[in-house]
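Quality-control log, excerpt.
Job 1 of 2 completed; input and output follow.
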Amino acid sequence: MRRITDELGLAGGRVTLLYVGKADDIPIVEKPRDHRWTWTTIVKEGDVVEAIVQSAAETGAGLVVMTTNGRNGFLDALRGSHSERVLSKIPCPLLNLPVGSFLG
């Protein structure tokens, strides 16, 4: 099975998984077993957008990847979605993946 990292030609790197919420609620994430990649998990509470922006700055992120299920109602139409607000505040690219998508 080919991985997305192979298809993109990535030789290795560092991945920081950020979960914003209570530590007891963090989902289980199956991390690829590849010695070329370093995986770190961070759990923060508070505002989702600010936690992502702050973590991107702290880790020197070169790319932020977020899941999205699209706009959610009237408030998103007024203030923008989480993704739109993160994108306007981070100095690196943002990749949005639909909830439930799979990068194999």
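Job 2 of 2 completed; input and output follow.
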Amino acid sequence: MTTTSSTGSTSAQQTLDQLLQKLGVKSSSSSSSSSSTTAPKTSLDQSDFLKLMTTQMANQDPFQPQDNTQMIAQMAQFSTVTGIQQLNTTMSTMATQIADNQIATVASFAGKTVLVPGTTALADSTGSISGAIDLPNSVTALNVQITDQSGNVVKNLTLGANPAGLVGFSWDGKDANGNPVGKSSYNVSATAMAGGKSTAQTTDVYAPITEVPIPASGQTQNFVVGGVGTVKMSDIKSIKY
């Protein structure tokens, strides 16, 4: 009798050890003999899911086996979770790549001459300045006055009648006698006639981008423009190459 009881206990222990092994859990006997300690897992992966499903099938009630539909549903749920995790990883990688590409793109704007709202125009290498007036409505007459930093009028430009939209202007930086005025910057203003009434108009100037700050995630991209200051990317109306 003693031999039979011992044999039965050994068999039961082996069966238990096999079940625990399938679940990835070490029995108390094997754990005590192990010299190393494995850190516990904090999340389940595909391998764990397959172990659980295999153990579930191996130990199911033979008179009430696992329904095929339920098993397929479990597999589909795990596949969906796995797919979402992979999608999150992919999107995170794409976001990083897009951010890197954006930095390279905006950096290429440095040194470019852009048309932005402003009243101070910097003279280029030839002493000339240029800009535009963004008319909200058509006008019968349009005039641009250019003064130096002391307020002295150096040029009046008569642009005549114009429809609504951007109307460009330029000045070569020379006085009435063809001599260079020689200033580094000028102030510009504009007035227009419409319906017999004169109104001041908003001016735009061409100026170089001198600095390209890199914005934090989610912030607006700005540029520092010579003679104008900080402007948003959406304020740029034209780019000269």
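Post-run check on job 2. The longest helix spans residues 68-107.
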